[in-house]
């Protein structure tokens, strides 16, 4: 999915897609209605960031995410 993010617009990314014959579709940036998982990532990010002690590494992030259930 190409949402016009910088990493999707690089020449390397475009060359890779072109070499594989992958057709790109125009996709508006920040369109959670077209990509519902973005709402989940946003909610998780806000919950993790709102903790008294935000995770500083992968293991503490995993523990924080598991504790949100």
Automatic annotation (TrEMBL):
Residues 3-55 form the Tc1-like transposase DDE domain. Pfam families: DDE_3. It comes from the Eukaryota. It comes from Trichonephila clavipes. This is Tc1-like transposase DDE domain-containing protein. One of its GO terms (molecular function) is nucleic acid binding. InterPro entries: RNaseH_sf (IPR036397), Tc1-like_DDE_dom (IPR038717).
């Amino acid at each position: 999915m190409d949402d016009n993010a910088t990493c999707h617009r690089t020449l390397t990314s475009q060359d890779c897609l072109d070499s594989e014959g992958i057709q790109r579709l125009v996709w508006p940036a920040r369109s959670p209605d077209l990509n519902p998982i973005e709402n989940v990532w946003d909610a998780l990010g806000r919950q993790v960031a709102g903790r008294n002690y935000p995770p500083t590494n992968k293991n503490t992030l995993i523990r924080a995410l598991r504790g949100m259930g």
